[in-house]
Structure formats: C-alpha cells, structure tokens
Design brief:
3 domains
C-alpha cells in the first residue's frame, strides 16, 4: 500500500491579533471580541483537522476497495482502476474543500458582523462622545486663536487711540513726579545695586554731554532744534529734555516745552504695535552680536530684535544699558521690548526713571553672580 500523507500536520494558524496591537490599550469590549475570535479560530482549526482525517480515512478505504476490485473484476486493468481511484479521490477532495471554504466564509462574515456591531456600540458610549467633543474643541481653539489674537490687537489699538488724551494727561502728571524724584533715585539705587560702572557712565554722560548743552540752550531757536532732534529719534537730545523737564530751576516756559516734547516722544514709542526689523543678508549669530556695536542705528535695532531669549537672559545688564542710553530712540525701544518680554514688565518704553528704579530692586533675581 502506498505511503499515506501525514494528516496530523497542523494547519497554519491565523495571524495572532495580539502581535498587531497591545491588548492593554483596548477597551474591555474589544478584548472580549478578540478572545471570542481566538476561540472561533481554534474551533475552525479543529474542524479542518477532522476533515483532513476523514479525507485520509476515505482515501485509505478507496485504496482497499480498489485492491478488492482488482482481485474480483479481472477485465479492469490496473491503470484504469488507478485512474478511477484518482478521479474519485480528487472529486472527494474538491467537494471537501468547497464545503470547508463555504463554512469558513460563513464564519468570517459572522465574525465581521459581530465586530462591526461591537465597534458601533462602543462608539455610542459617553466616553467616546466626550473624547470626540474634546478633540473638536481643541482643534477649534487652535484654528480660532490667530483670529482672536488679531481681533484683540485691533481692539487694544483702538482703545489706546481712543484714550490717547487721557493717557497723555496721566503720563504728564506721572512724569512730573517721576522727574522730580529722578536724580536722588538714580544717585541712590544705581550706586547701590547696578554698580559703580553704570553710575560712572551716567555721571559722565550728564557732566560731559547733558549739562554743558543745557547751559547753552537758553533761547527759542536752540530749544526748537533740541525738540526737532529728539522727535527724530536722537537719544542724547531726548535725555537732555528729560533733564530739563525735571529741573525746577529752569524757566517755566523752557521747562514746559521740554515736558511736552518729552511726553510726546515717549508716547510715540508706546503706540501698542511694535514692528520688528530683520536682516536681509542672513548674518551668522556671531555677526548679529557684533552688529549691536554698529554705528548704524537700524543695524543695532535689527540686531536687538533678533536676539534669542537665551542670550537676553544671560546678558540683561548689556540690554539694560542699551535701552537706557543708546544714541537712537528706536534702538532703545527695541531693547525695552526685549527686556520686558524676558522680565515680564509692562512699564512704558523710554521711561528710564521707572526702569532704573525697578532694575535696581530686582536685578539680583535675574543676574546671578559669576563663579
């Protein structure tokens, strides 16, 4: 009798769903479905194994039957009997395969319906609906944030322009008081906290630049020139106006002109919307830092605008010096913007009295001593 195929060989198992996704991330209902699928697959494998065993038994019976026919019926040739046995076996195998395939297709369809039904039920639960709602709210917030920001900027700008008169009146009043107290505050706080270097620089500027020019500005033509220079962004002229505005010994008309001009120039640098400058030649970080010392005001301002937050945090003293004494008021405004963004302040740009007073009290919180 010819060797029979080994029918005990296991059918290839279906892909393990556990390898496709971790069960710990699934809900209890999905895990129950997977376990159900595993039990059904095991039944299918047992069923196919039984079919294969039956097929093997049938084939054995057919072979025995063929041998009996050869012995009993002499007019059949061996080749005819073999052919008939092969045909019968092939037909049996084909019928068995069709039956098995049909049963498998029915089970698969049933399994898909069950999975679809369970998933539909899962997505109807309150947790899923809440999760989808949260995701929708987050996406809406992300999409609406730029629109809200632009609208807030527009409203703030409109509000500032609408309150311009009241703001200027308040600023003049506060500036009068701050300027009256400016010199003792500078003498005391700068010397005690910021250090001898800043104090010496301020004193040198006052003694060598501001005081001599104040003594020369005693007629209307000279004060007019000073006002024009300050309004065009000249930092030294602006400092002189601040000095005159706080000097009670000056003539009333002379001092009032200085106060009005000082206030107007300060307000022009606090309009609520600040436009940054950027380099066109794409310099390296080292070249940007070098341009902080440029003779061109626009180069210095662009270099300040492109300072990284990390650099600003490590060089606040340098930035403080620029924002209180740079020759160009535009560069000072840029430095004020950077300084306030890092320290969280909201005092007015070019308000040196307030800035110096605050920095004197809080410098140790931001500048750590070098080791």
């Amino acid at each position: 009798m010819p060797d029979q195929p080994d029918t005990s060989e296991k059918l290839p198992s279906a892909p393990d769903l556990n390898q496709q996704m971790p069960r710990s991330s699934l809900s209890a209902e999905l895990r129950e479905i997977l376990e159900f699928n595993e039990r059904e697959n095991q039944k299918h494998r047992d069923y196919f194994l039984m079919l294969y065993k039956l097929t093997a038994g049938a084939m054995t019976a057919l072979v025995i039957f063929i041998g009996a026919l050869i012995a009993f019926v002499g007019w059949h040739t061996v080749s005819d009997i073999r052919k008939q046995a092969q045909d019968a076996t092939s037909e049996e195998i084909r019928a068995t395969k069709e039956k098995s395939q049909k049963a498998m297709d029915e089970e698969i369809q049933n399994m898909r319906k069950q999975i679809t039904g369970r998933l539909d039920a899962e997505f109807q639960t309150p947790n899923i609906r809440e999760m989808v709602g949260d995701a929708a709210r987050r996406q809406t917030q992300l999409a609406m944030m730029p629109l809200i920001t632009n609208e807030v900027k527009t409203q703030v700008s409109s509000g500032v322009h609408a309150e311009q008169g009241a703001i200027q009146e308040t600023l003049v009043s506060q500036t009068h008081k701050a300027l009256d107290d400016m010199k003792p505050v500078i003498d005391q706080t700068v010397a005690s906290r910021v250090g001898a270097a800043v104090d010496a620089a301020v004193k040198t500027q006052v003694d060598t630049q501001i005081t001599p020019r104040i003594q020369q500005l005693q007629n209307s033509e000279q004060i007019s020139e000073l006002v024009t220079q300050a309004e065009s962004g000249d930092g030294q002229s602006f400092d002189i106006l601040a000095r005159i505005a706080g000097d009670q010994s000056q003539q009333a008309g002379f001092r009032n002109t200085a106060i009005r001009t000082f206030t107007a120039v300060m307000m022009s640098h606090n309009e609520g919307i600040y436009s940054q400058l950027h380099f066109n030649d794409n310099p390296t970080p080292e070249e940007k830092l070098a341009r902080l010392q440029s003779n061109e005001a626009l180069q210095r301002r662009a270099a300040i605008d492109e300072l990284t937050p990390d650099y600003v945090k490590d060089h606040l003293d340098q930035l403080f010096g620029i924002m209180t004494s740079d020759p160009d008021l535009g560069a000072r405004e840029a430095a004020y913007q950077k300084f306030k963004s890092v320290t969280g302040n909201n005092f007015l740009n070019l308000d040196n009295a307030t800035a110096i007073s605050w920095w004197t009290k809080h410098r140790d919180e931001f500048v750590k001593p070098k080791k």
